[in-house]
Amino acid sequence: MYIVSDTIGRSFRFGKIMWQPKLDPSDPAQLYRRLLQAIEAGIAAGELQVGDRLPPQRDLAHRLAISVGAVTHAYDEAARLGLVAAHVGRGTFIAGAGRGDAVADGLIDLSVNVAPFVPTELLAETAATFRRTASWANRLTYQPPHGLDGDRQAGAAWLAATACFADLDWRRLICCAGAQGGMAIALAALCKPGDVLLCEAATFPGVKTLAAQQGCRLHGIEMDDEGLMPQALDRAAAKTGARALYVLPTLQNPTARTMGKARREDIVRIARRRDLWIIEDDVYALYARHLDLPPLASLAPERTIYVSSLSKTLAPGLRAGFLVAPAGDVLDRCSRAARALMHSPNGITTAIATHWIESGRAQDLARNVLDEIRARVTIAGNVLKDFIAQPQPAVSLHLWLPMPQIQAERTIARASMKGLRLAAPMAFAASENAESGLRLCVGGVPNRATLERALSLLSSSLSGHDDYLDAI
Q1: What letter does residue 276 receive in the DSSP assignment?
Q2: What local confidence, expressed as pLDDT, does residue 288 receive?
Q3: What is the per-residue pLDDT for 1?
Q4: C-alpha span between 268 and 181 (Å, rounded)
Q5: Please, what's the b/e burial string for 142-171 (b: 16 or more CB within 10 A of its CB; e: otherwise)?
Q6: How many CA atoms lie within 13 A of 31 on its CB side?
Q7: Distance separating alpha carbons of residues 450 and 101, to the nearest angstrom
Q8: Whole-prediction pTM value?
Q9: How far is CA 15 from the centre of its chain?
Q10: Dihedrals phi, psi of 13, to nearest 5 degrees
Q11: Averaged over 6-28, what is the pLDDT?
Q12: Any bridge partners for residue 429, and if so which?
C-alpha cells in the first residue's frame, strides 16, 4: 500500500484497488444491494480500511460480470451512508465512521424504532412517474375526509397481504397521518377527558403522550410471555369501569412479545363480556406475517378500531397510516375526529404510498427490510445472547433486555459514555408494576457494521462495573 498527495496536500491510500468481493448468486437481493453488503462486510472484517480506494466502477463491473449501473448504484448508496467518499478524477475511497452512525450529540442512536432506509433513487423515480400523470395536480388540493377510494383500496390490499387482514372492507378504512394520527382519531372517537384507558403495563410512549393530551388516565395491566394477561385485563376492567383498551398484540412495544391465536381469542372474549372497545395497534404485523395470526379486528370487528401504517416497514417520513373502524356510529365518530384533527389526508405522501403498493415496490422494499432485520436480529442474538429476550417471530425492529430499573439506568449511563443512546425504561411505564428493561432498536443505524460495533459496546456496558456508577 502506498500514499500519494493531491494538489492541496491531502493524502489518500491507494491500496485494495484489486479488491473483488464474492457475490452469492443464490442471494435473491438485487445486485447493487449485494455489492453494498459486500462493502459493509469488507469494512467490518478489516479487509477495507479508511483511505483504501475501491476499484473503478467499470473495472469492477467487468470482473464481476455485472452492469456498470449496478456498481454505480452500490457506490452511490455506500456514499449516502457515509461508508465511502467519491473524489472526481481520483476515485472512491473508504471513509471513516458512516454518516448516520451518530446523531447531533455524537451518540450512536439505538433508541429510535425505524426500519432501514428506503433507497433514495426510488423517491426520484416515483416523482418522475407522478410528473407524467395528469392526476398529480389533484393531489395538491384537499382530499376527501376518508381519503380517495383508490388510496383506501390500496391500503386494504396492503393490510391483507402483510397483516392477515383478508376480510377487510376498504369502505371502513380511513387514510391518516401515520399510526400516531390514527390513534389520536381513535382516542378522540372513544374517550372523554377523565376516562380510563387500559393498556399493557409497559407500553408505547406515543400512547402515553396522546392520553395525556386528551386527558385520559392510563391503567397498566400485567403481562406475561404473550403480552397482556386475560385475567389481569378482566380484573382491571371490573375495577376501573374502563370502556376502552389500547393493545399491541404483535411484537408488543417495548417487550417484542406476540400473542398467539388462543390468547387473542381470550382477550376478545373478555372485551365482549366487559363491553370494552379495543384500539389495536398493529404496526409490526409484517414482521410476524409468517405466523398467520389474525388481527383482533378480524376476531372482533364490531368493537375494534384497528390502526397501522407504513412507518415501521418502509419509511416513517411518509406519514401514511390506516385506521379501520366498525361501520356505523363508530366510523362516523372517527370521521368527525379525523376532520377535526387533520381536515383531510396528505395527498402527496398518500399518493406515494399507493403508487408503491400498486406497483409492487412496497412489497419489494418490505422483503428487503425483512431480510435486513433478520440479519440484524441474528447479529444482536450473537453479541447479546446472555441478555436478550428473543422475540417469538425472531424478526423484529426492537428487542427487549429485561432487567431491574436501577440496572437499566446504570447501563444507559455506561452506554452513553461509550457513545450509545438508549431509551430510558420509564418512557414505557404505564403503571408502578411495569416490567423493567431496555428496548434495543436495531433498524435505525445505517448498516450492520455500525450495529455490530454498537452492540459490542453495549455488551461491555451490560457487564461493566464502574465504581462511581455502582455506588449510586
Answers
A1: -
A2: 95
A3: 37
A4: 24
A5: ebebbbbeebbbbbbbbbebbbbbeebebe
A6: 12
A7: 7
A8: 0.78
A9: 38
A10: -85, 125
A11: 57
A12: 202
Binned at pLDDT 50, 70 and 90, residue 273 comes out as very high
Q: What phi, psi does 453 have (nearest 5°)?
A: -65, -40
Would you state the cell numbers that stand for residue 256, as one nine-digit string?
417484542
pLDDT, tens only, 424-444: 888 998 987 788 999 999 998
- Please list, in sequence order, all residues whose beta carbon lies within 8 angstroms of the beta carbon of residue 446, skipping any fewer than 6 positions away: 81, 82, 98, 99, 100, 101, 117
How far apart CA 34 and CA 25 sit, in angstroms, is 10
pLDDT tens digits for range 189-229? 999 999 999 999 999 999 999 999 999 999 999 999 999 99
DSSP 444: S
With 0-12 CB in 10 A as exposed, 13-18 as middle and 19+ as buried, what is 135? exposed
CA pair distance 443, 431, nearest whole angstrom: 28
Question: Residues 113, 441: contact at Cβ < 8 Å?
Answer: yes
CA angle 243, 247, 250 (to 5 degrees): 155
Mean pLDDT over each residue of the chain, to the nearest integer: 86
Q: Which range has the top average pLDDT, 37-51, 102-116, 136-150?
A: 136-150
In order of 108, 163, 404, 469, the CA distances from 459 in angstroms are 14, 34, 17, 17
DSSP tag of 81: T
Give the span between the Cα atoms of 222 and 232, in whole angstroms: 6
Amino acid of residue 132: R
Q: How confident is the model at residue 122 (pLDDT cuts 50, 70, 90)?
A: low
Question: If phi over 0 gives left and psi between -120 and 50 gives alpha, with beta otherwise, what is residue 419?
Answer: left
Contacts of 441 (CB under 8 A, 6+ apart): 109, 110, 111, 112, 113, 114, 397, 398, 423
Give the model's pLDDT for residue 89.
63
Residue 181: all three cell numbers together: 394520527
Angle (CA) 333-187-335 rounded to 5° is 25
β-sheet bridge partners, residue 93: 53, 85
Count of beta carbons in the 10 Å neighbourhood of residue 471? 6
Q: What is the DSSP letter of 429?
A: B
The Cα-based distances of 172 to 179, 248, 322 in angstroms read: 16, 21, 10
- Predicted confidence at residue 100, as pLDDT, reads 41
Q: How far apart are CA 163 and CA 251, in angstroms?
A: 13
Are residues 281 and 245 in contact, defined by beta-carbon separation less than 8 angstroms? Answer: no
Q: Name, of 69-73, 123-127, 271-275, 375-379, the range with top average pLDDT.
A: 271-275
- For 280, other C-beta atoms within 10 Å of its C-beta total 26
- pLDDT for 86 equals 72
